[in-house]
Amino acid sequence: MNTKARKVMIIGTGNVGASAAYALLNQNICEELILVDLNQQRVEGHVQDLADAAAYMPGMMTISTRPVEECADIDIAVITVSGGPLQPGQTRLDELTSTARIVKNIVPSMMANGFNGIFLVATNPCDIITWQVWQLSGLPRSQVIGTGVWLDTTRLRRTLAQALDIGAQSIDAFILGEHGDTQFPVWSHSSVYGSPIADVYLRKTGQPLDFDALADKVRRHGFEIYNRKGCTEYGIAGTIAEICRNIFTGSHRALAISCILDGEYGVQDVAIGVPAVLTQSGVQQIIELQLAGDEVAKFNHSVAVIKANIARLP
Ligand SMILES: NC(=O)C1=CN([C@@H]2O[C@H](COP(=O)(O)OP(=O)(O)OC[C@H]3O[C@@H](n4cnc5c(N)ncnc54)[C@H](O)[C@@H]3O)[C@@H](O)[C@H]2O)C=CC1
Ligand SMILES: CC(=O)C(=O)O
């Protein structure tokens, strides 16, 4: 029996980090949760509050805070830092300079202190920061991933599930590309048990599926939430928990997450959302799909936008 405690460090315990901690706790995904934030008083408050919640769980979980440099024993380091909320009208790309500056301080000091786990980046702009973490860390690309378009994929599946009255787990549809404005659903591979999604939709609703309207709805969904409550937190917390679970269980499940490409899809040296098989060592393989002509163009556009923003990194 494997008795080694599974340890997750969450770096940045604001809306996303604190919600992710609560999701990891309630889903019993690890034995140790280590919270890190600049705001020491609030992080200590989170530690005590979560310890109260953990008392209702059947298993034991240790929750603590410590300096980010004490990370040599960590299995998964989740990056959820931010330099401040977006202003109205801004996009995720507008966070680049402030979040990149924070990450530039954190990652080298973790590496200098022996970190050799898996980095999981949620901080926006997610793909660009994932690439930055990979560069700064010097870790193999298998150990650096971003939550990428898995949250968007979940939003797409749940919207289709509602329209079709079929459980989201039975809907094989997903988003590729940037966790941002250039993301797109891969309609050429979307089905319910092999039945093309457009056929299933027409049979169920009597209406043709409006592909563009649905893609747009999913793309804007984060901002629909953001504009109402000033952040999104529970959806991304669920995404973080799901990715951590698949890593710890070595599920070999393929999730559409941000990975460093090294020739896949004809692309090199970029982080972008693609289906990737997860094991206990991180990304074990990237699944390359035969995309339709318009999807290839959309993917390449997404790559170009991410690369242009990588070039802006401080
Ligand atoms: N990938 C996704 O789907 C999603 C990504 N996000 C992104 O997640 C990030 C966090 O969002 P929120 O939690 O709402 O922001 P927040 O402002 O509530 O929390 C950020 C936390 O980072 C901390 N922090 C800043 N510098 C730090 C440092 N050097 N060391 C340790 N902690 C530090 C702050 O003190 C703060 O507590 C943002 O970039 C946001 O856009 C949010 C939702 C979904
Ligand atoms: C904020 C963000 O990236 C999202 O909820 O999709």
TrEMBL record:
<keyword id="KW-0520">NAD</keyword>
<feature type="binding site">
    <location>
        <begin position="12"/>
        <end position="17"/>
    </location>
    <ligand>
        <name>NAD(+)</name>
    </ligand>
</feature>
<dbReference type="Pfam" id="PF00056">
    <property type="entry name" value="Ldh_1_N"/>
</dbReference>
<feature type="binding site">
    <location>
        <position position="232"/>
    </location>
    <ligand>
        <name>substrate</name>
    </ligand>
</feature>
<feature type="active site" description="Proton acceptor">
    <location>
        <position position="179"/>
    </location>
</feature>
<comment type="similarity">
    <text>Belongs to the LDH/MDH superfamily. LDH family.</text>
</comment>
<dbReference type="InterPro" id="IPR011304">
    <property type="entry name" value="L-lactate_DH"/>
</dbReference>
<dbReference type="GO" id="GO:0006089">
    <property type="term" value="P:lactate metabolic process"/>
</dbReference>
<dbReference type="InterPro" id="IPR022383">
    <property type="entry name" value="Lactate/malate_DH_C"/>
</dbReference>
<keyword id="KW-0560">Oxidoreductase</keyword>
<dbReference type="InterPro" id="IPR018177">
    <property type="entry name" value="L-lactate_DH_AS"/>
</dbReference>
<dbReference type="GO" id="GO:0004459">
    <property type="term" value="F:L-lactate dehydrogenase (NAD+) activity"/>
</dbReference>
<feature type="binding site">
    <location>
        <position position="147"/>
    </location>
    <ligand>
        <name>NAD(+)</name>
    </ligand>
</feature>
<feature type="binding site">
    <location>
        <position position="92"/>
    </location>
    <ligand>
        <name>substrate</name>
    </ligand>
</feature>
<feature type="binding site">
    <location>
        <position position="16"/>
    </location>
    <ligand>
        <name>NAD(+)</name>
    </ligand>
</feature>
<comment type="function">
    <text>Catalyzes the reversible oxidation of malate to oxaloacetate.</text>
</comment>
<feature type="domain" description="Lactate/malate dehydrogenase N-terminal">
    <location>
        <begin position="7"/>
        <end position="146"/>
    </location>
</feature>
<dbReference type="GO" id="GO:0005737">
    <property type="term" value="C:cytoplasm"/>
</dbReference>
<dbReference type="Pfam" id="PF02866">
    <property type="entry name" value="Ldh_1_C"/>
</dbReference>
<feature type="domain" description="Lactate/malate dehydrogenase C-terminal">
    <location>
        <begin position="151"/>
        <end position="311"/>
    </location>
</feature>
<feature type="binding site">
    <location>
        <position position="37"/>
    </location>
    <ligand>
        <name>NAD(+)</name>
    </ligand>
</feature>
<protein>
    <recommendedName>
        <fullName>L-lactate dehydrogenase</fullName>
        <ecNumber>1.1.1.27</ecNumber>
    </recommendedName>
</protein>
<comment type="subunit">
    <text>Homotetramer.</text>
</comment>
<dbReference type="InterPro" id="IPR001236">
    <property type="entry name" value="Lactate/malate_DH_N"/>
</dbReference>
<comment type="pathway">
    <text>Fermentation; pyruvate fermentation to lactate; (S)-lactate from pyruvate: step 1/1.</text>
</comment>
<dbReference type="InterPro" id="IPR015955">
    <property type="entry name" value="Lactate_DH/Glyco_Ohase_4_C"/>
</dbReference>
<feature type="binding site">
    <location>
        <position position="42"/>
    </location>
    <ligand>
        <name>NAD(+)</name>
    </ligand>
</feature>
<dbReference type="InterPro" id="IPR001557">
    <property type="entry name" value="L-lactate/malate_DH"/>
</dbReference>
<dbReference type="InterPro" id="IPR036291">
    <property type="entry name" value="NAD(P)-bd_dom_sf"/>
</dbReference>
<comment type="function">
    <text>Catalyzes the conversion of lactate to pyruvate.</text>
</comment>
<feature type="binding site">
    <location>
        <begin position="124"/>
        <end position="127"/>
    </location>
    <ligand>
        <name>substrate</name>
    </ligand>
</feature>
<feature type="binding site">
    <location>
        <begin position="152"/>
        <end position="155"/>
    </location>
    <ligand>
        <name>substrate</name>
    </ligand>
</feature>
<dbReference type="GO" id="GO:0006096">
    <property type="term" value="P:glycolytic process"/>
</dbReference>
<keyword id="KW-0963">Cytoplasm</keyword>
<feature type="binding site">
    <location>
        <begin position="122"/>
        <end position="124"/>
    </location>
    <ligand>
        <name>NAD(+)</name>
    </ligand>
</feature>
